[in-house]
Design brief:
about 200 residues, alpha/beta, Rossmann fold, six-stranded mixed β-sheet, three-stranded antiparallel β-sheet, 7 helices, binds zinc ion
């Protein structure tokens, strides 16, 4: 893939080309069964793909003139870093990580000034939990985020953060309740994918 062909590709096509759109029979975190699974790190392991996706983040988030990009661990670490690099200047990229008390926090000694213009990036939006926890971590640091962007929106119902949420693409994946799964009925072995 050349940089020019990456630029013209849909998000679904980028996942497919990277082998990150897996076919099979998968147990989702929700307990539902699905016939496809997005293994985001098969895309993000390739710097040209990660750079292209973050170029799109920078495009949609540029109107908010961010000074700080925040993402949830683990995918958000590299997305926030690369998106910040693409904004250039003194824009920083940091991450919100889980804390023992529950939720996420900005740790690592990062200073977040009340005047910061914060945007949030994440990989796959499903329930919105990691995004909401990241928003809470930013608010706990005393700043209201301006916008968020995700690579793929797979949410079943809209996630309301109280500010704009941009999505670079949608990838439709059929899923079923475990007791109504067509793939179980066809005796296809069930896999529990990934760790994230
Ligand atoms: Zn099944």
């Amino acid at each position: 893939m050349t940089d020019a062909s990456l630029r013209g590709a849909s998000v679904e096509s980028l996942f497919a080309q990277a082998g990150a759109l897996l076919d099979g029979h998968f147990l989702l975190k929700s307990g539902r069964h699905a016939g496809r699974y997005l293994e985001k790190f098969l895309v993000l392991q390739h710097p040209p793909y990660a750079v292209e996706l973050c170029r799109r983040f920078a495009d949609v988030l540029a109107p908010h003139s961010p000074t700080l990009v925040v993402g949830p661990t683990t995918g958000g670490v590299l997305l926030a870093h690369e998106a910040a690099r693409q904004f250039g200047g003194s824009v920083r990229g940091i991450f919100a990580e889980p804390v023992a008390a529950g939720g996420r926090a900005l740790r690592r000694g990062w200073a977040v000034d009340a005047s910061e213009r914060v945007v949030i990036v994440d990989d796959i939006l499903t329930t919105g939990a990691s995004l909401v926890e990241t928003v809470d971590a930013v608010r706990a640091a005393g700043v209201e985020p301006l916008a968020a962007a995700v690579i793929v929106d797979r949410s079943a119902s809209p996630v309301d953060l109280g500010f704009p949420l941009h999505s670079l693409g949608r990838i439709e994946i059929s899923s079923w309740e475990a007791d109504a799964c067509e793939l179980c009925a066809a005796d296809i072995p069930l896999r529990k994918p990934g760790s994230g």
